[in-house]
Design goal:
alpha+beta; 2 domains; 3-stranded antiparallel β-sheet; 32% helix; 17% strand; globular; disordered N terminus
Amino acid sequence: MPTRRTLLAAAALAAVSPELMREAKETPVTESDLPEGVIRPFDWTKQRIPVSAWDSQEAPIVDEAVTAAMRRYGIVGCGVCAVRESGVLYARGFGYAELRGIPFLATTATRCGSLAKCVTGLSALVLADQKRLDLDAAVLPILKDAGIVPTPVGATQPDERIARITVRHLMDHTSGLPRSATYTAWRADRNVAALHHLRHVATGADVARDALGNARLDSEPGMKFQYANANFVLLARVIEARSGLKFNDFLTRIAMPKFGLKPDEIYVSRNQNGPDSAARGKNEPAYYQTSDERYVSFNPSEQSNGQVYGEAYRGYATEASDGAGGIACTAVGLGKIIANLHSAAPALSAWAIGQILTPPAHYSHEAGFNPARSNFYSKGFNVRFSGGRPWFSHSGMTNHCGGVIGHNAGYQFVAVSNWNAPGPPYVDSLLDPALAEAVAKLS
């Protein structure tokens, strides 16, 4: 009887040139002494990198730029999409979704770190367009209605300033929450299950309770930009509270369809114990970490056995950090979203688009800031005006994956990968300049 992996491989191989696949010989890079998903640097030197087409124009310049970066840095697999005006111009998959022979497609949905924030921000704006979310509403009462209240540990007292955090502050990273505020189930300095005596893997709600109950704000809400993953974990909980749906359900059934996406193009990646986990999405790749960081399992029952893991498998509870970095995206799906934002008839209302394109109030106090040409962070995106038009960007990474939304020469581009470098520059920073240079040559 065919296995799930066999069926996945058969479907993926159908999209790849037979000539390329005949020349692509596998290199045994995994070793028994390494945790699941952790590999030695991958070597493409003697191999032709598989390239899978999508229904789009050809762009050999982009193909060459991506494969050169993959060969130079050992990138296992990635999906790439380029947008011109309001349409997807180009989309390709490169390399492997799984090193046993499954190619990475433009429709492979991989975790891509903080690109999740763009998706979560748009989801909140969809809810606001439905008149079900007020961006200037205080967060604590919304969460309290959903049973989420600040939960301090020991003698800690919640910071009284959290009562002044609004939905808008979360979306703009101006809540004052520090970068260290809790945003996932387990990190070396913050084991949520142990601290709160949980017998289950900590959920997004558990993480929210801990962040609100134990983090000291670095600034008064609304006063300045300070990037903190916890903001978007909390925003996902706000979306749940106001929509009455689990975040993934609102994402896949309500928000993303507004942009013409199907449920398998962008969704919350579930917690996984290994690449063969039943929780793995049907079009989700295996993940490959080359860094030497090791993690204790996010499963409470395994936390005392002394075993360590790579981040992707048992190390990172994606469901707990969903809105901040636990979402799987296809390159084509993100490309469609960016194209829609540039279209004459976007999925969001003029008011909602205006929320993204208006610099948050704190920028007015920054010396030299000019809204017509300066970068600013708003509603999950980095925004910059050039030539009188807005351009969107963001980068994202974890130890086992990464991605980038960028722009250059009148093009927007997207790249997502199931691999990451052992240290900076990470995969998002490696693919960004390669694609920026390539699209400039298209012009």
